[in-house]
Design brief:
Layout: H1 3-13, E1 30-34, H2 38-45, E2 48-53, E3 58-62, E4 66-70, E5 76-81, E6 87-92, E7 98-103, E8 107-112, E9 118-122, E10 129-132, E11 143-147, E12 150-156, E13 162-169, E14 176-180, E15 183-187, E16 191-196, E17 201-207, E18 221-226, E19 229-234, E20 237-245, E21 257-266, E22 270-277, E23 280-286, E24 288-290, E25 297-299, E26 303-309, E27 314-321, E28 336-340, E29 345-350, E30 353-359, H3 362-371, H4 375-384, H5 394-408, H6 411-422, H7 426-438, H8 442-446, H9 458-471, H10 473-482, H11 490-503, H12 508-520, H13 524-534, H14 539-546, H15 556-562, H16 564-573, H17 580-586, H18 591-604, H19 613-623, H20 628-634, H21 640-649, H22 653-662, H23 666-677, H24 680-690, H25 693-703, H26 707-716, H27 723-729, H28 739-780, E31 808-812, E32 817-819, H29 836-841, E33 849-853
Helix pairs in contact: 3-4, 4-5, 5-6, 9-10, 9-11, 10-12, 11-12, 12-13, 13-14, 15-16, 16-18, 18-19, 19-21, 20-22, 21-22, 22-23, 23-24, 23-25
Length: 854
Amino acid sequence: MAEAAEKETRSNEESTDESEEDESEEEPKLKYERLSNGVTEILQKDAASCMTVHEKFLALGTHYGKVYLLDVQGNITQKFDVSPVKINQISLDESGEHMGVCSEDGKVQVFGLYSAEEFHETFDCPIKIVAVHPHFVRSHFKQFVTGGKKLLLYERGWMNRWKPSVLHEGEGNIRNVKWRGHLIAWANNMGVKILDMISKQRITNVPRDDISLRPDMYPCSLCWKDNLTLIIGWGNSVKICSVKERHASEMRDLPNRYVEIVFQFDTEFYISGLAPLCDQLVILSYVKEISEKTEVECCARPRLDIVQPLPESCEEISSDALTVRGFQENECRDYHLEYSEGESLFYIISPRDVVVAKERDQDDHIDWLLEKKKYEEALMAAEISQKTIKKHKILDIGLAYINHLVEKGEHDLAARKCQKILGKNTELWEFEVYKFKEIGQLKAISRYLPRRDPVLKPLIYEMVLHEFLESDYEGFATLIKEWPGDLYNNTIIVQAVVDHLKKDPQNRTLLRTLAELYTYDQRYGRALEIYLTLRHKDVFQLIHRHNLFSSIKDKIVLLMDFDSEKAVDMLLDNEDKISIDRVVEELENRPELQHVYLHKLFKRDHHKGQRYHEKQISLYAEYDRPNLLPFLRDSTHCPLEKALEICQQRNFVEETVYLLSRMGNSRSALKMIMEELQDVDKAIEFAKEQDDGELWEDLILYSIDKPPFITGLLNNIGTHVDPILLIHRIKEGMEIPNLRDSLVKILQDYNLQILLREGCKKILVADSLSLLKKMHRTQMKGVLVDEENICESCLSPILPSDASKSFNVVVFHCRHMFHKECLPVSNTVSSVQFCNICSAKHRGPGSAILEMKK
């Protein structure tokens, strides 16, 4: 590699991240970092040729024939000088205690890392591959294979001697080999073979697809996904093969296992390495592109793709271009991909660089979101995974989110997020408030400042209030209403409002706010004065809440002028605090308000304001005549003579009629209805209410010469007065409107009365007969007489103890029983006797006799 190219690569690459992803909104699946420390020192003087990975350490081979054991951070733990030329392959058993190494000069070494066990052999040709048995640590699995022109199997036998045997030859150099369990897979110039070590039979041959590619420049990549699944990558073709057991019926001379290709697809670029990732594949690809400057094909950055295999194609999950040192000079054969099965770590090896790829965790996901300025998603991801993330803190992400929103000018959203992000941290709250003040956005954060748990310093709230007071009276009033009064120094704010009122004394918003501040400061008298001046709806609530009734005794008129209904309800609900007499006295000069108060008082209780009933007559007559008549009807305390005088003065006919009738002057009342109102229906109704024959007579006499009145009487008089009396008095020849209809109605009413009487008679007779039959059936029933019954007179058993003797017992229908001789002798002529007990109370059904003789 040229020194100039190396310097240029370092200057361009070392200042960048270990991997560069395409600028896109799709999040990468892997993260990358260079393996540094000892690896950096090695590759400054040497070049990497191969590497193998164990869960405990790494083994790196170089072009100068050195083998280094490294920890996972790249620190050198051991160094082996194996050969002066390139190391072609390193192999480790599963325990990590034995290592096999082969080099370009034909040397093969297999030795124990922690024991003196060692094998040395030098061949006359370059050895490209070596693979020790996965369980080499066990004594009966001391086997390894080497590959040059032949595939040789070495087994340790008698006297610790190694016995070689040829497994395959004649198809060119062996380019790659992978040993898993009892299966060995290798690749030569013609294709890939798999050998079953148990039966020592080759079970498959997978031919190479593109024979135009040189196998030494585009070597085959092999990888065992598990004990029975082999992944083959060669050129731009990928095959996933599954080793299966052959059914006994198909055996014949065939191996007991066979291979089935379950997935096969082509890739866009040449394959340098393969590794499994769950059910997906990680593919390291060698890329060539046309230079824009020289228009000549050159080497591009290698790609690491994650694909999802499909039966005949694949779906790309992610694709990253990797900036490795010296990629411009590398060929396909210079790249290798190794992986650690347990940790999903992938090592990309090139001559001048070793890059480690690993699956991204939640911290990486949050890093990517922050990089893309998706702060809200990052905050949500951190909250969900707060127990697993190690690098990030929710608070730091939240503060970055707030700063981002402020920079974008979304001040309201930034202020709203403060509630959730800052929580109960008062220092952060105060810091953010000052920051919002610096950018002139105190109003934005005012709505979200904490008011309880936590509470900030009073200075913070006062600063916000002063900001509003200078520019937004309505906003200031809203904050005073919403914020508790103990958040700030009330005296300071009151003085500030008073100073502003000197400039604008009629500003209703400031006056209303000042009243609220006085309320918080318990200066209720001043607050009440302002509310009354403003006629504010909260005045009644203020009075109730703080029991300010002693302060409103001289302000009743103001309250009534503001809202008479609420004022009256409040005064009546608190009679014990402001007496009725005091209210009436205060309203003396406002009779219309006095009437409203007394009217509601009367509606609540007819007797409480009885001393003012006389005054109310004039008030009703002046301000509320529709309610005068109901008042006169319901009141038992108003003077009727005074009421009559007022009603006659004002010519209130209906009220006068009521008063005359109530005073017993019904005839004058009726006369007034007929003469003043000339309303026959009302006159008839009045006569019905009084139910006085003389009134009916006066009504008939007054109506006899007035045909319309006669019609009304004929229609309504039938059930109260005999219509014949009216009909006989009608003069002959007088025209009466609707006379025929009136007479028909009278006859119909009469027939209806007759039918009702007959119907009632039938019902009574039927009910009487039914009850009589029921009583007869009841009385005809037998009555049980036994030893438990006693004589109601002598109180001895009703039946004699000696049943052979004759006896007489009297049993009444009321169930009382007597010995016959115990009954008194009846003085009446009638032979019917009655129960002495029931007769003493009343005589009725059930007391007649029922005599029993024996």
